[in-house]
Amino acid sequence: MSFPGKIAILGGGTWATALAKIMLNHEKHINWYMRRPEQIQDFKKTGHNPSYLSTVEFNLDRISFYSNITQVVEDSDTLILAVPSPFLKSHLDKLTTKISDKFIISAIKGIIPPENLLVTDYLTQFYDIPVENMAIVGGPCHAEEIALERLTYPTIACPDIEKAHAIAGIFNNRFVRASVSNDVSGIELAAVLKNVYAIASGICHGLKYGDNFQAVLVSNAISEMERFVDIVSPIERRIQDSAYLGDLLVTCYSSFSRNRTFGSMIGKGYSVKAAQIEMEMIAEGYYGTKCIREMNEKYNVNIPIADLVYRVLYENASAREGVKVLREQILK
Known about the structure:
By secondary structure, this protein is an alpha/beta fold. It folds into two domains: 7-182, Rossmann fold (3-Layer(aba) Sandwich), CATH 3.40.50; 185-331, N-(1-d-carboxylethyl)-l-norvaline Dehydrogenase, domain 2 (Orthogonal Bundle). 51% of the residues lie in helices and 11% in strands. The protein is built from 15 helices and ten strands. The protein has helices at residues 14-23, 37-46, 69-74, 88-92, 119-127, 143-147, 161-171, 184-206, 211-232, 242-253, 258-267, 272-279, 284-299, 304-314, 319-330, and strands at 7-10, 30-33, 63-66, 78-81, 103-106, 111-112, 117-118, 134-138, 155-157, 179-181. The strands form two sheets. Strands 3-2-1-4-5-8-9-10 form an eight-stranded mixed sheet, with helices on both faces. It has a two-stranded antiparallel sheet with strand order 6-7. The chain starts with 6 loop residues before the first strand and ends with a helix. Pathway: Membrane lipid metabolism; glycerophospholipid metabolism. Residues 6-162 form the Glycerol-3-phosphate dehydrogenase NAD-dependent N-terminal domain. Its main location: cytoplasm. NADPH binds at residues 14-15, 35-36, 52, 109, 143, 258, 282, 284.
């Protein structure tokens, strides 16, 4: 069977649903794993995901659903991971078959706690997957806009550029234009950091700072991102490219950004727990903030915006006072 073979999506949320829509624009049939059998049952009754992006209708004849992760892995050649990063381990722990012979596409824009490993590094260390058999999806690509078929430009990163081009080919359609890169680690790190900075942007929004201040905040955030990524993964890259800057901008400014929404609630005075309960969705940046903080104990990069977010989320620091320090001493 030619690459990428039979494709499976692992995850039942918003992003997984958007990815299924993209895949079915190219593939005749996909496999789809969801943890909860009742979600699958409701999906089959209604023809759409009952919980996420419910306006997107699917032809059920083109989908094989699974609630058993081992079975879907055995029946597939390429696995697209689209579960929140804090829960990837619990899904993979259920496996009773190997995945080292599969091609893995990580669409997870997060980091694996408590090891503080990028998804590709985690899969290499714990599941023996060769680096050339993994790709990631980066760049500005909100699931809600994909559902609306608004023009979207993801980046497919893989050490094997020929495979990156092949994966980009199954993503491309009339509203998706995928580019390729070999900067897997850099784009993964940027995807973690942009969620942290989106929380900072949301905090400032909740505190009623205006667009002028937000522009300065985000300008400083991209400089922070560049410092951190270049130290952790020192290869030549253009931080202005959409896989880095574009993803940061859309996550900091879009109304679809759950990390920005989460931060805005914190800025308005919600406790972290209250904000998480009311959102009913995972803000990856909450977990990413702690992971980046712990990673930086090794690298000691100057990242004051990310440090502020950590203090607010994990040390109960005042958001208002913290932003005041940023605006008077750091931002420029």
